[in-house]
Amino acid sequence: MNLWNFLVQNRLDIADLTLEHLWMVGISTLIAVAVGIPLGILIARKPLLRNPVIAGANIIQTIPSLALFGFLLPAPWIGERAGRLAILALTLYALLPLIRNTYAGIEGVDRAVIEAARGMGLTDWQLLVKVQLPLASSVILAGIRVAVVISVGLATIAAAIGAGGLGELIFRGLAMVSNTVILAGAIPAALMALAADVLLGWMERRLAPQRT
Q: Would the pTM count as exceeding 0.85?
């Protein structure tokens, strides 16, 4: 059976697995954004915390994905549910680009702009919300872009613990020694990553400060 026939005959199953994949990536990215961006802001405000926080995120990145899933299995209320475990693991992997880019974006704001804002009487909170975050938004979005693309790829590994997603087809194809089944999972995952990269890249360019 060729790839096209397989995709047509199994389109409903592939659609379900694609939705599972999107769910894991979407939820984990939202959680990572909710944690990573505030951490990036924190280390920009508290330089003493920068090295410990970034080092911790770096260490997580060095752990092989399957090994991280194994480490999290004993966790109460998480290891019992493969979906929760996969989302937690993807969230942890997505933190580093979000923390780094948020920090880099805030630190990259022109000091003259900051001094001018302070001269206008803005408080630290107003400075952050009205000046630093808007000017850093394109850099922060670049971190989200990297995190999403990483998560789409790593989510295929989640099938190894029964969390579903397009990885199921890849592992099934490996067991069957079938390139057709492997490609049926790999191609939609690759297209998903490319679509996310193109869309977020376009948004990133739109948010970038205009040079005069």
A: yes
Please give the Cα distance from 91 to 164 (Å, whole number).
17
What's the farthest any 2 CA atoms get from each other in the chain? 70
What does the DSSP 8-state code read for residue 131?
Answer: I
Closest among 190, 187, 180 to 3, alpha carbons compared: 180
Per-residue pLDDT of the chain (212 residues; tens, 9 = 90+): 688 888 888 889 999 999 999 999 999 999 999 999 999 999 999 989 999 999 999 999 888 888 887 777 776 666 557 788 889 999 999 999 999 999 999 999 988 988 898 888 888 889 999 999 999 999 999 999 999 999 999 999 888 888 889 999 999 999 998 899 999 999 999 999 999 999 999 998 888 776 55
By three-state DSSP, how is residue 74 classified? coil
Contacts for 63 with CB less than 8 Å, ≥ 6 apart:
71
Question: Is 106 in contact with 41 (CB distance < 8 Å)?
Answer: yes
Task: Give the C-alpha separation, 147 to 143, whole Å.
Answer: 6
Contact 36, 98 (CB under 8 A): yes
